[in-house]
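Figure 6 in text form: structure in, sequence out.
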């Protein structure tokens, strides 16, 4: 037997342990595909059902305004308020993907860090208007973060929530280059309802960033990238959207940092909503993110002497 064939027959012990030496069974794969199709179909039906109710309510409101039918308009506006309250009560969360804990070597100067991360926090931005419902959570032990901003249906309100998890770095050598990578799972839901020329805003964003208070420009952020973001700023429209467990592979690179630098690599979520009360405008923005790991690759910056 050739050496090539001998190598091809050497068992992969990791796969043997995880799969018992079997390929994925056909029946299992068929069940998984069927389940995924059901999930997509259910998601589409849910979105269509709300969109159809919005379309009906909007049509009723417009027609009632032309006919001066206050009772008809009132019923349609009450239904929009009912949808708003129903969505506000719904709890969503990105699925957790828990890996082995600690720090694992991936290359000479590389590590993959899994929960627990070094820190986690949630902030409600100063300048909140009225009484919006603002909630957030951040757990360094699981890597899960969430934010929720929902306007008050009785009066004008405006608010923003931010949550973050991250890891702390103090490099042992430099100048060096840092590459940060992660593939967070994100689940979100937003709605923005406006009638009677009343402005409404719903927005959200997930962020991977690198923070260095010594050299970062503005706010100490050296570099960042945004994933899964939306911004709805409108008048006279009823909109809604949601999705669950979407994966967003993102990466960043920062050059020329030194042992004297202190860095944080973080993943954050922020949501905000503005509305003028109902009838008028209502908005909600909810995002949940699970961070299974953050991979860091450090490399020396090579210089050429003349």
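Output sequence:
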């Amino acid at each position: 037997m050739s050496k090539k064939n001998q190598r091809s027959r050497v068992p992969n012990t990791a796969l043997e342990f995880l799969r018992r030496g079997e390929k994925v069974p056909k029946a299992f794969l068929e069940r998984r595909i069927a389940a995924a199709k059901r999930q997509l179909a259910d998601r589409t039906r849910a979105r269509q059902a709300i969109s159809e109710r919005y379309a009906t309510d909007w049509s009723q409101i417009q027609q009632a305004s032309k006919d001066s039918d206050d009772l008809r308009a009132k019923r349609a506006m009450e239904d929009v308020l009912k949808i708003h309250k129903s969505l506000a009560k719904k709890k969503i969360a990105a699925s957790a993907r828990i890996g082995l804990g600690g720090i694992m070597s991936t290359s000479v100067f590389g590590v993959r860090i899994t929960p627990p991360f070094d820190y986690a926090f949630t902030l409600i931005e100063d300048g909140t208007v009225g009484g919006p419902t603002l909630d957030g959570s951040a757990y360094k032990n699981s890597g899960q973060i969430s934010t929720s901003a929902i306007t008050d249906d009785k009066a004008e309100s405006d608010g923003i929530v931010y949550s973050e998890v991250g890891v702390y770095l103090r490099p042992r050598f430099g100048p060096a280059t840092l590459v940060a990578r992660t593939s967070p799972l994100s689940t979100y839901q937003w709605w923005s309802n406006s009638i009677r020329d009343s402005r409404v805003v719903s927005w959200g964003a997930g962020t991977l960033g690198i923070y260095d208070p010594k050299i970062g420009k503005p706010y100490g952020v050296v570099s960042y990238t945004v994933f899964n973001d939306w911004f709805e700023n409108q008048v006279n429209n009823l909109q809604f959207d949601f999705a669950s467990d979407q994966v967003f592979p993102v990466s960043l690179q920062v050059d020329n940092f030194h042992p004297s630098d202190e860095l944080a690599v973080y993943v954050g979520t922020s949501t905000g909503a503005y509305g003028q009360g109902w009838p008028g405008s209502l908005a909600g923005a909810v995002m949940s993110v699970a961070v299974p790991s953050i991979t860091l690759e450090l490399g020396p910056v090579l210089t050429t002497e003349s």
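Caption detail: Residues 1-21, 103-108 have pLDDT under 50 and may be disordered.
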